[in-house]
Q: What sequence folds into this?
């Protein structure tokens, strides 16, 4: 199957390398016929072009891989490709979170596939696991660590007793954090993946108005306090469904030190789904990087080449009900910790914003319920 | 798709319950048309029969689920069903480990599928993950905790400071261990799953002559010693491949307390594969139980109903090379611990057998290499 790759950054190069290796029968049948690069960039490979129409008008090119990142022009290019009857595979969580319904609907109209395994949790086959679990079970809870940068920073803070700024600087030096780390440390990236995952898990289009917490104001003394109480902390997303209601939150979460989550090292991800007969299923792996993310893109390409259709329907329309994620939360404000019992993450996010007006160092987190 | 279930024990009932629930479109299309029970057993459901020919001669029954357990008559019935052109799904690790090549070859001849997701790690989609990872990558290492009973016993010993016998008795009372626990605590069950997993991962038929260790002689004082050294212990399998050589071992393994493996609670399983571009992928879930194992069986049925074919080829013929698993091992003999560096598990298993002739309480385990 001939494919086109739009964008040749980290993930695009990873996809190209895996296709060049031809390590298996399945990968040997995929050919990168076009690589779309920006006008003015040097064409270092003969398959490179800066003319999208060359790709759109090539009838032999059945599938377009979008790995440019960002909302535009990715959104426009994906729609153009789908409308030309080409399957689309993307690794771009921002554009999927923003336009999932439009992409799925356009793909359905043109009888092609829109796949996005690489948009959540990198190399972990998370989307596939969700869809395959849904063949049998109702999924009522998903959760997990979906941002490797935040995990790396926390893990370094715990293991090397660093403060946040030092850990962030080291993560930037190691290539795990970007120059502007906001999307990772403020929970935006995790929120994109939470929206995509919950939309699939619960068959609905989740909107963006759920509470999003981050780790920007996590201090060494917080960690020391948590560890003294037998807990570590991770930036987690959690989503629940009950009948026709759902809720999502992205919140720093205290967890027992002997939980799997508390022991996720470096920049790894750990994702969880709970099915009605399957029970708890957790997947751990590389959530980023050229080859793991490239691997996820290629797994989608192979599924398309094999004519395997997964059902990413988004039909039902659920209502957001913040009470589904009621729990116990902790707020550090003016050097004092206060615990709030049985409140919604929305309420806590509002309370936190108040606290932030007085003191730039406030921090909030979910804490385990008694007995957990 | 009409199916027949051979056997109505724990797993058979789990499969039947999931089909009766009809929670999804996929499960609603599966119908348990026959349930085969032993002669003399009471037929509590109208679909029950003690006549296998009723099933074999029913042209509408396209798929047979074997959940009787044991080698015979399961082996004979599976072959009969395949030769009648019926797909076969089994949860029976003993019969798959003993006859995998014959089953795959017979299925190939009759152009039907032979599937066995439920034979390894219960509800964890381990076989599917292995096969799908192999679409892209060479798999060079697999490992993991594949026996929930042994894990439950060790976890209870650690958390409640119990001796082995007390933990075993409690596991039996809780329904996690059988009256004769040998297969679980002596590593036989893990060895079956290791053979099946390694055969698929490495495209070869692995033979049974690899070293198999167990936890029968693990003592409270061993655990205390390990914990004082920052380690816990788990009964693990490990298999490696390099060029045309492979090795497998089932060995109690010391692991850092902050590893995921050391924090697997209760009777859960944790399985790992390492792919050339994917990196490390770990899956955690329920390794046993009616509904999780039934879920794995039903996932195979749905794949068959959807006409999805995974490639469980077993072609290459590799040589066993014990040196691939060389490492550092610990032996407790006459109350003294001794460490052996850079030896094969075979050599250690022999050394352990010698130690056992003198003292019934000897114990051996793999220890992390320096720097790990």
A:
């Amino acid at each position: 199957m001939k494919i086109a790759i739009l964008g040749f950054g980290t993930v695009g190069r990873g996809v190209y390398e895996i296709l060049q290796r031809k390590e298996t029968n399945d990968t040997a049948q995929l050919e990168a016929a076009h690589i779309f690069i920006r006008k003015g960039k040097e064409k270092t490979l003969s398959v490179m072009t800066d003319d999208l129409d060359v790709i759109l008008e090539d009838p032999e090119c059945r599938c377009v891989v979008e790995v440019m990142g960002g909302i535009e022009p990715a959104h426009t290019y994906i729609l153009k490709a789908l409308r030309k009857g080409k399957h689309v595979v993307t690794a771009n969580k921002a554009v999927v979170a923003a336009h999932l319904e439009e992409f799925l609907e356009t793909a359905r109209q043109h009888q092609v596939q829109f796949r996005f395994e690489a948009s959540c949790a990198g190399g972990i086959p998370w989307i596939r696991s969700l869809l395959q679990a849904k063949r049998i079970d109702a999924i009522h809870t998903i959760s997990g660590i979906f941002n490797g940068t935040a995990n790396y920073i926390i893990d370094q803070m715990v293991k090397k007793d660093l403060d946040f700024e030092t850990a962030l600087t080291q993560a930037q030096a190691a290539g795990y954090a970007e120059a502007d780390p906001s999307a990772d440390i403020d929970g935006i990236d995790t929120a994109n993946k939470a929206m995509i995952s919950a939309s699939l898990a619960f068959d609905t289009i989740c909107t963006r108005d759920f509470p999003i917490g981050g780790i920007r104001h996590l201090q060494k003394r917080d960690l020391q306090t948590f560890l003294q109480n037998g807990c570590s902390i991770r930036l987690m997303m959690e989503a629940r469904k009950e009948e026709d209601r759902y809720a999502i939150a992205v919140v720093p979460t205290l967890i027992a030190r002997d939980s799997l989550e508390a022991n996720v090292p470096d920049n790894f991800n750990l994702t969880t789904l709970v099915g009605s007969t399957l029970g708890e299923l957790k997947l751990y792996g590389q959530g980023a990087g050229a080859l793991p993310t490239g691997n996820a893109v290629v797994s989608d390409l192979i599924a398309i080449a094999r004519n395997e259709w997964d059902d990413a329907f988004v039909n039902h329309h659920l209502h957001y009900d913040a009470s589904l994620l009621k729990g116990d939360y902790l707020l550090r404000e003016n050097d004092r910790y206060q615990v709030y019992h049985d409140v919604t993450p929305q309420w806590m996010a509002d309370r936190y914003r108040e606290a932030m007006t007085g003191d730039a160092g406030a921090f909030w987190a979910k804490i385990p319920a008694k007995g957990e």
Notes: The first strand of chain A starts at residue 2 and ends at 6. The radius of gyration of chain A is 21 Å.
